[in-house]
Amino acid sequence: MRVIVPRHSDIPGMADASRATWTSLLKAGVRIFEWLPGMLHAKTLTIDGVWSTVGSYNLDSRSLLYNWEVTLEVLDERLAEQLEEKFRDDLESCEQVDPEEFRRRGPWSKLRERFFYFFRVWL
Predict the structure, then answer these.
(1) pTM more than 0.85
(2) Angle at 104 between CA 98 and CA 121, to 5 degrees
């Protein structure tokens, strides 16, 4: 599994809160890529080359409880193929997170991640 996340967030502390979850993802074999050009709000997903979802929905409690979000689900091989092609193109503007380098990040980074993760519902 591969995922693209923005390196920088438009919400202070959100990038740190997000990084608090990366250790378990990296251990599970998820390849994380950081989007370098700026903020990234797109949420797309394809499964088995046929099921796709495109929308604004964040997988967090704030979106579930407070935000007005929308997501479209489509069963269509052609759309899934186009989304996968766009994902591959977008990888050229990303930097892959090195699991070993991430593991060796300093205590200040780990503290910031834990701090902001605790307050993630309010970010």
Answers:
(1) yes
(2) 80
